[in-house]
Amino acid sequence: MTVTAPYRPDPPAGRDGFVPVLRAEWTKFRTVRGWVAGVVVAAMVTVLFGILVASGVHCASGPFPGRPVELPCSAPLGPGGEAVDDRFFFVHRPLDGDGSVTARLTSLTGITTFPPPDHHPVVPRVVPWAKAGVIIKAGTERGSAYTAMMITGSHGARMQSGFTSDVAGPPGGVSAASPRWVRLTRSGGTITGYESADGTRWTEVGTARLAGPARAGLFVASPCDLSVYQGTFGGVGAACRFTQATAVFDQVTVRGAPPGGWGRTRVGDTGQRTDWELYHRPAGVQESAGTFTVTGSGDMAPLRAGEHVTVEWALAGVPIGLVVIAVVAVGFISAEYRRGLIRTTLLATPRRGRTLAAKAVVAGTVTFAAGLAATGVAIPIGTRILRAGGAVVLPVGALTEVRVAVGTAALMAVVAVLALGLGALLRRGGAAVAVVIATVVLPEVLAKASILPDGMARWLLRVTPAAGFAIRQSVPEYPQVIGYYAPVLGYYPLAPWAGFAVLCGYAALVLGLATARLRRRDA
Amino acid sequence: MTDACVVVNGLRKRFGPTIALDGMSFGVRPGLVTGFAGPNGAGKSTTMRVILGLDAADEGTALIGGRPYRDLRRPLCQVGSLLDASALQPGRTARDHLMWLARSQGLGARRVDAVIEQVGLRTAARRRAGGLSLGMRQRLGIAAALLGDPPVLIMDEPFNGMDPEGIIWIRALLRSLAAEGRAVLVSSHLMSELQDTADHVVVAGRGRVIADASVARLLETASGRRATLEEAYLELTRDAAGFRAAGAPEAAL
Q1: Which of A6, A340, A350 sits opposite B84 (nearest CB)?
Q2: Which residues cross the membrane (chain A) (predicted)?
């Protein structure tokens, strides 16, 4: 035996810690052509499918759209930039400066056509959000700014302004025995709304800003009556039926208006008339001895998704892109198990939690970058195609659009991390991909495709990782606006960031379990 | 055993009802090629995996320079190992395989190219691992083991799949690595491979060490007619089986 001095190499330069592990995992990822190609394909599929969906949408100008993808061709914008519905009957006088409008409501009645379940032709009924009261509006054009103090069918007194703001006042309805007083005063551009039961003791409901020349007076609106029915093949359908409300006002005073008569405007008149309006009672006003009987239909409200196209239609390809992402992210770890390469990995980086974390960072970052490229291309191109097809894409603020684009990229990144964690936990690629598809992609697709009953769709989008898709929802629900806020129309049961947090929770849980298993088990 | 770089002490491990390691203890000293021999199922691979921190032992310790593998910082710079040369991502090139290993230790491309040169893989470096022959994979595995210029090398069956030329090359390489003062542990189920390579042999049987001696001593303690290590080994393992059957506690030289 030769006696040799133990080998003592020069300590090599370089760092210890998380960064080398991260660089190793990044090198691993970028040196497998199939994975890089997979991420590129995922981004391309996301964009192309979105464009395909956008290309199939056309508006229809007729009153009876034949197909669900045929949508109204135009919509006015409200003062906040959102697309709005602005239809009601308006009895008005000019109010250019300070002043007030006051009226007493003694009756609010109405009709509903073809209501379920028995579909009698017409029944006397005031819909819950029928509204009558006083209003100051910047003009009679659709979409112009307004503030209104109103009594509703069954939501009491409200002060609403700017199409999205709604403040509740004292509850209760209107009858001859218990009339309601409403008042708006304007002073230096600030409007204050009041309600009173007797015309002497007033309750302030709220304030709003509205400066400049305006019209002040009485209004009546009655939104269509929504009914949701079970579809033949599961899923649901929705129909919104014509309604009309009639309010009786007296003791009407407008202070600050120049002398003259009343203007009468059917705001947002399309020229179309229902049979009820043609043969029974048209919208309008009858005045006799200071008593105004005003009849109207419609609503002052932001437009809803489903009835109109939203930005996220351009992101319809995301669930498909996610399937590809899941295959790549799962493969990033399951391939190591299949080849036995996981041992080499753990020899090089024996701190197992750190190694899995580095893989998650690489998979998440790469997917986020690809996802951001996809949403950054799909949203501008998709919405341009939708608008070129004549559809009304509900406008949203820049911040919301950024949230949808960046949030969707983050959604894809977190799904990649979840898929990676499942790959590490199950160690079998096919099983892990199947779990991702079953828990992330399928609930979203089935809920959107109207295959599941509404209740189950909502439940799935709360409790499964698919809740994260809520991050794509660009327009909010408005409790004061009748609408069918269902997943099938793009309304998620959880708020955008809450849904995203559910997905993140699942990803963290799975990654934690995978780390524990990786640490405990022999490699 | 005090100067040993790798100290295996009393390892025990069961896989369900099977006893894989039953008090495995030995040391690997610097400057020597230590052969690790034994029949299939003797616990060689399990012992190596425990040394390398991949498997956890139920009892006992395996320390490298006094520390368990999992506590080593930049472990490839302290222990180079070759376990399964076929454990490769088929779509990744040989050079890229070494590249990610280098990055994990904070090493650069220059070191990668140096080991590629050292193992004679230059012409195959840009080829995908899926297209490499078993011999080339073995060279790639050895390159990975040498990447961190480690003072300790642990190789499981490095001769597997090598052509005769490759076997001669790897023998020379292992001897030169030991001559530089490195500790080299090489397992093989073929004693003939170890005879011309190892200075020292640890023979394992049924999860424990049944012989731990220099090659010269193994040959000389036996009766004169045993000219080869293989014959010594066969007799040893047969004896081990007999001892265990008789309930004798120890059989070591």
Answers
A1: A340
A2: 35-57, 313-335, 356-382, 402-425, 432-451, 494-516
